[in-house]
Amino acid sequence: HVSAAGRSQTRTGLGDITLSSGIGWHFSERFHVIGALDVFAPTGGYSKSNLANIGRNYWSYGPVVAASWVDPKGLNADVKVGYLFNQKNRSTAYTSGNELYADYSLGWSVSPEWALGVGGYATVQTTDDKQGGQTISGSRHRAFAVGPSIKYASSKGWFVTAKWQQEMAVRNGPQGHAFWIRAAFPL
Description:
mainly beta, 3-stranded antiparallel β-sheet, globular
């Protein structure tokens, strides 16, 4: 839901899909690290006439490193740090600046499969936006989000995490909340 300048609009749906390919290291039964390349595909709903959009309408890609500590009887923690190279939105000829971001979660296992906790993200735009080849100074976005999370980890190695996050400390962008579902399936 977005409200601005006396207008408002609400949209729901599937956002942009992230495709990842990487390699993982299992340093112990509890400590795991992954190095990967993320590609964000512009699959979410977008229209330049909308006030609220589900998708960004441009491709992004970049390296990512993630680390997890998983104790089926205690502490669970993970962090994912990445850098995004954002491409041009062809509908608007606008290019958002590149971003450094981190997703995080901290929880406790309530059973061997289930963990409850908190999670969120932080993002800082490191380069200015551009439109029509011109730099837009003072356009760098930043945000921080936090909220509850729940995770199910199967005995076969795959897991699903659901998070609700409230954004705060937002600069140069809309502030709101989001519901995320993330799944990982080892091959």
